[in-house]
Write a structure and sequence with these properties.
By secondary structure, the chain is α/β, with parallel strands linked by helices. Helix content is 48%, strand content 16%. The strands form seven sheets. A seven-stranded mixed β-sheet has the order 7-6-14-8-11-10-9, with helices on both faces. Strands 1-2-3-4-5 form a five-stranded mixed β-sheet, with helices on both faces. It has a three-stranded antiparallel β-sheet with strand order 15-17-16, with no helix packed on it. It is globular, with a radius of gyration of 34 Å.
């Protein structure tokens, strides 16, 4: 039968073992069974620690401590250097504490909470999180989140279960038996972070009152853009943001595995910004280390971080598709997925009442005025129920309405998402500019600064929404024309009057990611791109930024973008070009304005995007017709852009992820041979093949990529080298094309040299050219015998056959 004190003993053993190493339970010493035994080493000398755990409802009295010492004194004195550690749940009385502290120097005492805090040092952090749900009055107007459970059939077809209360579902899971991690998915402004705050406050309160409850940790994954691993992110969090002297990542991992931690990972989509698919997978793999043993891990983010269903299946379920088959990686955890619901009509009405009442009553606005304003806001929301079903949009509208001076009649006939955010920031800037202390800077200057700041964060800081003052470049302030005394003076003036929030220290941040996304979109609309800026714009028009720009209905703006498209350089996304075609005036034909004889124009000739996907900011899928047309292009495009198309093919198709490297290398070996020999003529006397001078670059590239043919017992083989072909694509980086910001970064997936069966290569060569290729390699083993020469007439070649060979 289990002793009532066993739970405390076992917990003490786990915590002490996590910090000091192997602690032994119920070790028998000199005839006595010791609850826990472990050793610590200091200055090269070990001290034996014998632990007695007492799980009493009240603090231990002096007489109880004295009795424990009488049981242990012989053991302690017989094993010097040694100490007795008494572990309790509720501490000692004053007399007992004096006995331990002053009368017995071989006794130590700690509560189980003190042991845990010594192991990890999270007590101060937990205390700071108890009130996080009350910040800015959130608890006064919060609407409980509803969610749909996402289920999958055996062939990975998604379907939705009934609605559930997200908070109740998660709290039951925290205390339950299953350690299956949870993924909370929702678009921007749907309440993910608010739910995370509610969970943090709830679990922090429990942890402080109940020592058996898990300690919650909120990890904002946007910070991973500054750190290379989860260790670095946590180390930074508990060093600067929440200084925790005892924090140790290895101890944290052990306690997490033992079931002492609740981990909330917020914003995996922010981690994904400007990250290749390979890097994203590696970051997720790093995070998966936290899913171990009796852990509880919650992942929150936007599903738009996944560019396809295949990516989502892999990240959240470890499922990979190979042709028509789905295979699960047994080492990859499967998340239980939930999708947050947007507000229904009843919740919209309730939020307006609660939030507007909270805002106006703090300003001592009378009940009748509050009631009138609530009715006015509700009338506006009834015009576009879909727009205001998103909590962040509704909150912006109510924030506008909370200023009685704001005339809402301007949007009483309906409003777009773009117009709503535009009005919101304009009102904020006008309000700041009206203040006496803010008058040196106009409202336009303040808005311009916010746009410049957001664009800098997106283009130079991988989409972070927080920053340090010292990191702001001086150029951000120069547009105003004011001659500030110093960088600090300029930063103080702009930041004090900006819609920016501040953390402890000198860290500033946008209150919501969608605010920064709108400002980035507004910057881009106000600033037509030129040259390399097209590459930045191409990369940034995704997710929230893409949705805002899609909402901006002004063809003239995008006509200006197309005017300079021929100056575009560096990497351009295909969907960016299609997005432009959708937005410009009808008379603009984007294809005619692209640089001719470029990979960009060649791909766009055969690219027919799904306009519905583009308008929603979702990366397009490339259909079979596209790949068929691209396959033909490999044989006809100028050799100067062939390498770029091949580079595009590899990163867009992901073919090497399917382990068909021999097949794909054979394909391109065949392409190179076909390009050379379709115009070549074979000289039987010289055992050489000749190509026209116009095809000399094709010949040079083929010579570098295709090695000599070799005879083996199982057939003929030749070596194929990828590097020259891919380097050829890199040699001119202007107008390179990528899809959905992915790049071929996993160099190990493309072998430097690969041996290919000769028959495989021939299968990819057109039948009319194949015979010439076979004949050449029958006479010569390599491409070195293909030379450039002015083509002789067929008559001269025929005459040459009669001449004796030298």
């Amino acid at each position: 039968m289990e002793n009532p004190g066993d739970a405390l003993r076992d917990m003490a053993a786990k915590l002490l073992s996590a910090r000091y190493g192997g602690a032994t339970i119920e070790k028998r010493v000199i005839g006595k069974k010791v609850d826990v035994f472990f050793e610590i080493e200091s200055f090269g000398k070990k001290t034996r620690i014998f632990v007695e755990a007492k799980d009493y409802e009240k603090p231990l009295r002096r007489s109880q401590i004295s009795k424990i010492w009488s049981d242990y004194s012989g053991i302690i004195n017989g094993n010097n250097p040694a100490l007795l550690l008494i572990v309790t749940r509720n501490g000692l009385t004053t007399d007992a504490d004096a006995y331990v502290s002053d009368e017995q120097n071989q006794i130590r005492h700690q509560t189980i909470r003190q042991i845990e805090n010594d192991a990890l040092g999270l007590e101060g952090y937990i205390e700071s999180q108890v009130k996080v749900f009350e910040e800015d009055g959130l608890s006064d107007y919060y609407i409980p989140a509803r969610a749909l459970k996402i289920n999958y059939s055996e062939d990975q077809i998604r379907n939705y279960g009934p609605e559930i209360d997200a908070f109740n579902e998660i709290t039951e899971w925290i205390d339950g038996k299953t350690s299956t991690p949870i993924a909370i998915l929702a678009g921007y402004g749907a309440g993910k972070s608010s739910l995370a705050k509610r969970l943090m406050a709830y679990q922090s309160g429990r942890a402080l009152n109940d020592n058996d409850s898990r300690r919650p940790i909120l990890i904002r994954l946007g910070g991973l853009t500054r750190y290379s691993s989860i260790e670095g992110l946590l180390g930074g969090t508990f060093t600067s943001e929440f200084p925790t002297p005892n924090f140790n990542f290895q101890v944290f991992v052990k306690l997490n595995k033992l079931g002492r931690i609740l981990i909330i990972l917020d914003g995996f989509d922010e981690m994904k910004h400007a990250m290749s698919w390979v890097d994203f997978k590696n970051q997720i793999r790093d995070l998966n280390r936290l899913i171990d043993g009796d852990s509880r891990v919650i992942l929150l983010g936007r599903p738009t971080a996944f560019l396809s269903l295949e990516e989502q299946l892999f990240v959240l379920r470890g499922v990979r598709r190979f042709g028509t088959q789905n295979r699960h990686d047994i080492d990859w955890p499967q998340f239980a997925e939930f999708e947050l619901c947007e507000f229904n009509a009843e919740e919209v009405s309730l939020f307006i009442k609660k939030y507007l009442s909270y805002k106006l009553k703090r300003l001592n606005v009378g009940d009748s005025t509050v009631g009138e304003r609530i009715e006015e806001v509700q009338e506006i929301t009834s015009i576009d129920t879909k727009l205001f079903a998103k909590p962040v949009h509704l909150k912006i509208l109510v924030d506008l309405a909370a200023d009685i001076k704001v005339n809402l009649e301007r949007i009483s006939g309906g409003v777009t998402r773009w117009a709503l955010y535009e009005m919101f920031f304009a009102e904020l800037s006008d309000r700041e500019a009206a203040k006496e202390a803010r008058r040196p800077l106009s409202s336009n200057n303040r808005l311009t600064f916010l746009r410049e700041l957001a664009y800098w964060l997106w283009s130079s800081k991988d989409g972070q929404i927080s920053f340090q003052v010292e990191d702001l470049p001086q150029e951000l302030f120069e547009f105003s024309g004011y001659d500030f005394v110093s960088h600090d003076v300029a930063a103080r003036e702009f930041l004090t009057g900006a819609f920016i929030e501040k953390k402890d220290g000198d860290t500033y941040f946008f209150g919501h990611r969608s605010f920064a996304e709108f400002l980035v979109a507004q910057y881009m609309v106000c600033t037509p791109p030129r040259g390399a800026a097209y590459s930045y714009y191409s990369r940034l028009i995704v997710d929230g930024v893409a949705q805002f720009i899609a909402d901006h209905d002004s063809p003239q703006v995008f006509d200006g973008w197309v005017e300079n498209i021929s100056s575009a350089s560096r990497m351009i996304n295909l969907e960016f070009l299609s997005f432009l075609q959708l937005k410009v005036s009808e008379e603009f034909d984007l294809r005619k304005r692209l640089p001719q004889n470029s990979a960009l124009s060649e791909l766009y000739k055969i690219y027919v995007p799904d306009t519905k996907q583009l308008r929603s900011g979702v990366a397009p899928e490339l259909d079979e017709k596209f790949w068929e047309k691209l396959d033909q292009s490999f044989r006809t495009v100028p050799v100067s852009i062939l390498g770029q198309l091949v580079h595009f093919y590899l990163q867009a198709s992901g073919r090497f992820k399917q382990n068909d490297d021999v097949s794909i290398a054979s394909k391109f070996a065949g392409v190179l041979l076909e390009r050379v020999f379709k115009t070549a003529e074979l000289d039987p006397n010289a055992r050489k093949s000749f190509v026209e001078i116009a095809y000399d670059d094709d010949r040079k590239l083929a010579v570098e990529c295709i090695g000599p043919i070799r005879e083996r017992s199982d057939g003929r083989y030749l070596s194929f080298f990828w590097e020259p072909l891919l380097d050829w694509g890199h040699s001119n980086r202007n107008n390179r094309v990528v899809v959905s910001s992915r790049e071929l970064t996993d160099g190990a997936a493309v072998p430097i040299e690969i041996r290919l069966p000769w028959t495989n290569i021939l299968a990819f060569i057109d039948s009319e050219v194949r015979e010439k290729v076979i004949e050449h390699f029958r006479r010569s083993p390599s491409m070195s015998d293909v030379v450039t020469k002015q083509m002789r007439s067929r008559k001269a070649i025929r005459k040459g056959r009669d001449r004796p060979r030298p």
